[in-house]
Write a structure and sequence with these properties.
The complex is a heterodimer. Chain A is built from two helices and 39 strands. Chain A is mainly beta. In chain A, strands 1, 32, 34, 37, 38 and 39 form a six-stranded mixed sheet that branches. In chain A, strand 24 and strand 25 form a beta hairpin. The longest helix of chain A is centred in the middle third of the chain and has 8 residues. Chain B is of the alpha+beta class. Chain B folds into six domains: 100 residues, Immunoglobulins (Immunoglobulin-like, Sandwich), CATH 2.60.40.10; 117 residues, no CATH class; 86 residues, Immunoglobulin-like (Sandwich); 36 residues, no CATH class; 139 residues, no CATH class; 161 residues, serine acetyltransferase, domain 1 (Orthogonal Bundle). In chain B, strand 14 and strand 15 form a beta hairpin. Classes of the chains: A mainly beta, B alpha+beta.
Chain lengths: 558, 829
């Protein structure tokens, strides 16, 4: 294993003809079984292998070539390649999502997801299912279907019977995540589902009438857009479930997995991000928070534990205030005292319902009741100078005056409040540390003599001033990496940026410059290298704060 | 003199015998010095008609020492006591009792009352004159004497008004000269002794001139503050609706009602003007003269108040007015007025006419042929009510009224946060409200006060920004109050009693509205939440005075904001409890069924645009309120009235009527409904694709989606809908239904019409494949498109054309084209 420490700067070029996998259909199979699927994408016509990142799953290429457009069908703007693959899973594979990549003579592609289930998987029968008469009949649940919204405006009907009082869960996973979803894109597939009954009308005795539907109750960038619906049927009868794309998109990449289960079954959600989430409302603010932060700053973990208080009365720093905004208009207040200047950090966690439904506003007031600081970031836009505001999960502030202070917690709106509006607000001394780290590369394909730069950016939290080391391990033979210090041109500042320093960490970035020797051996399969970020403590690398595995290939014609 | 002859002529010549005489008012209570009362004499004739005979009767007063009576029947108090005013015509007598008190008391002078009433009556403070936005000729007066204090300053101190600032511009030149009163501009200008753009406004001998001169001689005081005396609360007009034949005349009587309950005759203190001088004119004394058949309003302005009276110039009475059956209270009001106007309502619509009309109006959907035939065959006397119940309970009703309210409430991507996720969420909220028939006041309250991430709040973030408070408030007032306050944003409303202060007081309710990400919220009363970090303040400033404005309701009552409350909830509560809400709501719904509102346009209530049937509007509003703001019940009441069910075929008396609902007015079907109708008749569905025609993101509505069910219409490209007036919902839509050349060209060559005719799967194709005869095909299409069978002549003529064409299929395609291009098809009647 070679490890390279990076300390200076370099720049590199972009790859041409990089293989890109767009979709696989079907993308779901039962464990212990075999199924065949088609992977569509760019520059895949010479695909020779499928590289599964983990798990006892075997995927092999059965054939590849340019997409064939049937006679009479409109030619798409961009022609894709199609790779036929065989997917074989072991009987003991754990159900869930697995990542795979296509391997071509030009290198390795981006990753796609494969779903393995423990239930039988049926394919949507051939033909159209756009009417109740042509609906796919479901005989029993649980059942999983793989289907496709093959053209824009298409919808698929599934017919089933339900008993009075019966509860069922319906879920549709998209094979092409849409914008907003993790890994999604603007042309993605956001599935929508609705349940209909054939109750007819005065105008049309056969009319289907919608009785329930799903779209995401929340729509915020970064959230999943898959469809999920739990419904209890009031009366026995024949019902229809319709699957369609939210805005009527469709095409050969618009594959989906439809699951129907008896009872109320929780939604299948992808595993949470493993990365450090400094400023998310969902990260746990534990009693050991100060030590966790100290570790990221290369300090000894001998910090005080954080006591927990109910958000009333008095407390001492460091503390976590817990409470519930159970009714509209509630405001909770608790007091603390500082004897001298104290740089504090205020962090907010919403263990139950979170933004945009519960939006905790935290204010610190001085002894006179005047607002000292809030978790509201206010700024004026660069274009119009309009006042913009946003709530943040973390605020830092230097308290300069000794005395009594009050922490107030309320919901942003005066109308909302309920038992699920739980908050945890941690008020503590600042602990300088390394925050989130971003390594902006998914995979690297290079030819002999080629070079590429990869940006690594990191946040300095709470005035962290230590040096940061970036290392790369497990480089392929003939590949080297150089130091980098990136140049970032100055941007026009916003008209009035507000007190950004309270709400936004200082971000720095460095660059890794990868280069391949002329005589480097060509690779058949990718090798996973590891980029590691650590604080420097007394000139020596401290504990690993962040790392990312990046598949890399040295190929003849990238 | 001429007028006297005119009145005599109107009252006597050709008129039947007088059977009753009334003096108006029947009694009067005159208080204070120089108190007066104008009297009218109204005769009722043997045929039931009435006429103003004030100039024809013989007047007398019981005690001339206490009161004098002029030749024009104006009584003036001379001493305290009781007198009787008597009138006689053709031996028929009438009398009014008058009580006089305080005739010798001194009344405190009040600028707001004594001077402003003259300025109003003489038109000085009208919008076209000094009451305009900037005033005129260097003198600014508030329109209709809305701000007496400010008017006093401008008159007494002078100076030029500025719209955007409260500062006075230029040298201050007083309009009164206390040292030389007769040289005051306030007096010399209206006499045209010096140049005056407004021309001569009074005579030197007039009483008004004397009052003004006396005021200046007394030092031009402001007098008693308005608040210390009873305020003028309303003007009452007699008669509220005057009808007369062409050439006839009628005097109007104006009574002022004050805040302490007492009344005064204001007939000689107001400014009269006619809304349509082709129909009727009005003299400065309030005598209306009928000029041509029609209906109009006379506007009456006094200082601070505006009112109107209806005038109907009617044709000859029918020889025998028929007895017309009524179905509900709507008919009582409509038919009473029609009778008064000598208009006979049309016959009841045929079953076919009714069914097509009610299906389109309640559901935006043509009745299927089998339902048309079934309905025609039914002998059940309750069949109309039963079908109305079926339609109101149908899913198509939900589709259609979701579409309707999506228009008013503006469901559109650009209007709802720039994402279809939000606009569709908002659409679903509207649909759920329609589907559950949620009380409309609840719907309004939620929309007005929505906070957080909820669906109703999505309309507060057009372009993903909170709209300016003024725009947001004006839209809500227009939607739920049916009133357009917009003019008052920049200046006092020139034609109405809406002040700039009132406008901004209302706007301030939305002044603390903000957004954080997708969440809409109001800043609590005393918290600006980090605004000071960027030198900001959460406040609404008065554009002219630059002073922070506090939320205040239209009635000027300010509202104290709380830190833990939503200020807009209070506003919503007040608005939905206000009479404006119910009357604006019923008027809007009425407008959908009759192609015009009782006040029309439906969201333009103002004193200068009075309702055609004020009592009906009031009763509908009251009924709506009592029903718990039940929209379905309101709609059923409307469509079950005989008025709604009248035929569109006219008779000799109602051909020219367009405002009194004597027959159903044919009106263009809205584009979306028409497109769905074309699809239904031809049997060929429409494809709706998103307008962006490249990339994988292009979308398409699912097969068989109806135009009225498009959640985000602005997302879908449709030449047809563009041509037929689909609004983009960038503002509250105003559909006109007016035809245009583009529509005609589209009928001739557009895909909506032409491509459908040769579609492989269609109603025509199915009939041809089934071997249907020409007559059967013609019959089927007639019933599908027009809701009626073809008559014998139509059947014979079309059959002949098909036979002569040579190519049967081509001929039948042309027949279908002609049918769906016809006016009868494109209109609801």
């Amino acid at each position: 294993m070679r490890t390279v420490l990076v300390v200076c700067t370099f720049a590199g070029g972009l790859m041409a003809a990089d293989p890109r996998a767009v979709s696989m259909h079907p993308f779901t199979g039962q464990r212990g079984g075999v199924f065949h699927a088609a992977v569509r994408g760019n520059n895949l016509k010479d695909a020779k292998a499928v590289w599964v990142e983990s798990g006892p799953v075997r995927m092999t290429v059965e054939g590849a070539g340019p997409e064939v457009i049937p006679e009479g069908m409109p030619k798409p703007r961009v022609m894709l390649d199609v790779v036929q693959v065989r997917v074989e899973t072991a009987a003991n594979v754990k159900p869930g999502r697995y990542s795979f990549r296509m391997v071509t003579p030009s290198g390795v592609s981006n990753a796609l997801a494969l779903q393995i289930t423990d239930a039988p998987v049926l394919a949507e029968p051939e033909g159209q299912h756009e009417t109740p008469e042509t609906a796919v009949a479901i005989v029993e649940a649980p059942v999983i279907y793989t289907g496709k919204i093959g053209w824009r405006g298409e919808s698929d009907y599934y017919a089933f019977d339900a008993k009075a009082g019966e509860t069922m869960t319906f879920q549709v996973l998209s094979g092409l995540p849409s914008i907003g979803a993790p890994g999604g894109n603007a042309n993605g597939f956001d599935p929508s589902i609705a349940i209909y009954e054939a109750s007819g009308s005065w105008f049309d005795a056969k009319r289907l009438n919608r009785i329930a539907f799903n779209d995401e109750p929340l729509w915020v960038l970064g959230r999943l857009t898959d469809a999920y619906l739990v419904h209890t049927f009031a009366k026995a009868g024949r019902y229809y479930l319709r699957v369609e794309a939210f805005s009527g998109q469709g095409g050969q990449d618009y594959g989906y997995q439809f699951k129907m289960m008896p009872g109320n079954v929780p939604q299948d959600l992808p595993a949470g991000k493993a990365d450090w989430e400094e400023r998310s409302y969902t990260r746990a603010l534990r009693a050991t928070r100060l030590n966790e932060l100290a570790a990221r700053g290369g300090k000894k973990q001998d910090q005080k534990p954080v006591e927990t208080y109910r958000a009333m009365g008095k407390f001492a720093l460091p503390a976590t205030l817990e409470g519930v905004i159970a009714a509209p208009g509630e405001a909770h207040r608790a007091q603390f005292h500082v004897d001298g200047p104290q740089d504090i950090a205020i962090e907010v966690e919403t263990p139950g319902i979170g933004p945009p439904l519960f939006n905790p506003v935290v204010r610190v007031l001085d002894a006179k009741g005047d607002e000292v600081v809030t978790n509201f970031f206010a700024g004026r836009g660069a274009c119009t100078g309009a006042l913009n505001k946003g709530l943040t999960a973390k605020t830092i502030y230097p308290l300069r005056n000794p005395g009594d202070y009050t922490v107030e917690v309320r919901e942003l709106t005066a109308d909302n409040g309920e038992a699920g509006f739980r908050y945890r607000v941690q008020v503590r001394p600042q602990v300088p540390h390394l925050g989130a780290v971003r390594i902006e590369e998914d995979h690297i394909n290079l030819g002999p003599g080629g070079a590429k730069t990869v940006r690594v950016s990191f946040d300095r939290e709470e005035n962290y001033r230590g040096a940061v080391a970036v290392a790369v391990e497990n480089l392929p033979e003939g590949v080297s990496v150089l130091a980098a210090a990136d140049y970032e041109p100055d941007k026009d500042p916003p008209m009035n940026p507000g007190k950004r320093e309270r709400y936004v960490p200082r971000t720095e970035r460095t660059v890794l410059a990868f280069s391949v020797a002329e005589g480097a051996p060509l690779m058949e399969l990718p090798k996973v290298m590891r980029v590691i970020v650590r604080p420097l403590v007394d000139g020596k690398p401290g504990v690993t704060i962040a790392s990312k595995q990046i598949p890399m290939m040295v190929v003849a014609k990238p | 003199m001429k007028l006297a002859w005119l009145l005599v002529a109107a009252g006597l010549f050709g008129a039947p015998k007088v059977v009753k005489l009334e003096t108006v008012p029947a009694s009067a209570d005159l208080r204070g010095p120089k108190a007066g009362q104008q009297f009218l004499a109204v005769a009722t004739y043997a045929d039931g008609s009435q006429a103003d005979v004030t100039g024809s009767v013989k007047w007398a007063v019981s005690n001339p020492a206490l009161a004098g009576l002029s030749t024009t029947a104006r009584l003036t108090a001379l001493g305290d006591g009781a007198v009787v005013v008597a009138a006689e015509l053709e031996g028929v007598k009438a009398r009014s009792a008058v009580k006089i008190s305080g005739s010798r008391e001194a009344r405190p002078f009040q600028f707001a009352r004594d001077i402003e009433s003259i300025l109003t009556k003489r038109g000085c403070n009208s919008a076209a004159c000094h009451g305009g936005v900037k005033g005129r000729g260097g003198l600014k007066l508030s329109a209709n004497a809305l701000y007496p204090k400010e008017d006093y300053e401008w008159v007494v101190k002078g100076g030029t008004y500025q719209v955007l600032t409260a500062e006075v511009k230029g040298e201050r030149l007083p309009r009164v000269s206390v040292n030389d009163p007769e040289k005051s501009l306030l007096l010399t200008k209206p006499l045209m002794m010096v140049a005056h753009g407004g021309g001569k406004r009074m005579e030197r001998e007039s009483e008004d001139y004397g009052v003004l001169l006396e005021w200046v001689r007394n030092g031009a005081p402001y007098g008693v503050e308005g608040q210390k005396t009873a305020k003028l609360a309303a003007l009452e007009i007699y008669p509220p609706m005057a009808t007369m034949a062409e050439g006839g005349a009628h005097r109007l009587l104006v009574t002022a009602r004050f805040s302490d309950g007492h009344t005064e005759d204001f007939t000689n203190q107001v400014l009269f003007s006619s809304n349509n001088t082709d129909v009727a004119t009005v003299t400065v004394d309030g005598i209306v003269k009928a000029k041509a058949l029609g209906e109009t309003s006379i506007l009456i302005r006094s200082a601070g108040q505006v009112a109107s009276a209806g005038v109907g110039v009617i044709g000859p009475a029918p020889a025998q007015y028929p007895s017309v059956a009524r179905a509900n209270f709507i008919d009582d009001h409509i038919f009473a007025k029609l009778k008064k106007f000598h208009i006979v309502p049309s016959e009841l619509a045929t079953d076919a006419e009714f069914l097509r009309r009610v299906c389109l109006d309640l559901t935006g959907t043509l009745p299927p042929p089998e339902r048309v035939r079934e309905f025609a065959a039914l002998r059940d006397p309750k069949k109309r009510e039963k079908v109305v119940d079926a339609l109101i309970g149908s899913p198509e009703f939900i589709d259609y009224w979701t579409f309707r309210f999506s228009d008013i409430f503006r469901v559109a991507i650009f209007a709802n946060g720039l994402t279809p996720k939000f606009s569709q969420k908002y659409w679903e909220w509207i649909r759920a409200n329609v589907a559950t028939n949620r009380p409309y006041d609840e719907v309004a309250r939620e929309r007005l006060s929505a906070q957080g991430y909820g669906a109703a709040s999505r309309h507060f973030i057009p372009y993903n920004q909170i709209g300016p408070p003024a725009d947001v408030m004006a839209e809500e007032v227009r939607v739920f109050f049916g009133r357009r306050l917009d003019c008052a944003q920049c200046h006092n409303h020139p034609y109405e009693n809406w002040s700039q202060d009132q406008f901004w007081g209302m706007a301030a309710f939305f002044g603390r509205l903000f957004k954080a990400g997708p969440v809409v919220f109001d800043h609590p009363a005393n918290m600006d939440w980090s605004s000071k970090d960027v030198d900001g303040k959460i406040e609404v400033l008065h554009p002219r005075t630059k002073a922070p404005v506090k939320p205040a309701l239209l009635d000027a009552s300010a509202l104290a904001l709380k830190d833990d409350g939503n200020p807009r909830k209070e506003l919503a509560k007040w608005m939905t409890a206000h009479p404006y809400f119910a009357e604006a709501s019923v008027n809007r719904i009425w407008g959908y069924f009759f192609a015009r509102g009782i006040v029309d346009p439906v969201d333009d209530f103002r004193s200068t645009n009075p309702p055609t049937h004020p009592e009906l509007l009031a009763e509908l509003a009251s009924d709506f309120q009592r029903s718990g703001y039940d929209l379905r019940r309101l709609m059923k009441t409307i469509v079950m009235s005989r008025t709604y069910q009248l035929s569109h075929r006219t008779n000799a008396t109602n051909q020219s009527d367009v405002v009194n609902y004597s027959h159903t007015l044919s009106r263009a079907i809205d584009g979306e409904v028409l497109l769905d109708a074309v699809v239904a008749v031809t049997g060929v569905p429409e494809t709706f694709s998103t307008a962006v025609n490249e990339g994988g993101a292009v979308g398409q509505a699912p097969a068989n989606t109806r135009a009225i069910n498009l959640k985000d219409p602005d997302m879908y490209f449709s030449r047809f809908l563009e041509l037929y007036g689909r609004p983009n919902r960038g503002a509250i839509p105003e559909r006109t239904g007016k035809p245009n050349l583009g529509q005609a060209l589209h009928m001739l060559a557009g895909a909506t019409y032409v491509d459908r005719l040769s579609a492989p799967y269609s109603r025509l194709r199915a009939l041809l494949d089934r071997g249907a005869s020409d007559a059967a095909i013609i019959e089927e299409f007639y019933v599908a498109a027009l809701g009626r069978p073809a008559d014998k002549e139509e059947l014979a003529e079309i059959g002949r054309l098909v036979a002569e064409r040579g190519d049967r299929e081509a001929a039948l395609r042309e027949f279908v084209w002609a049918l769906i291009s016809s006016r009868e098809f494109a209109e609801n009647h």
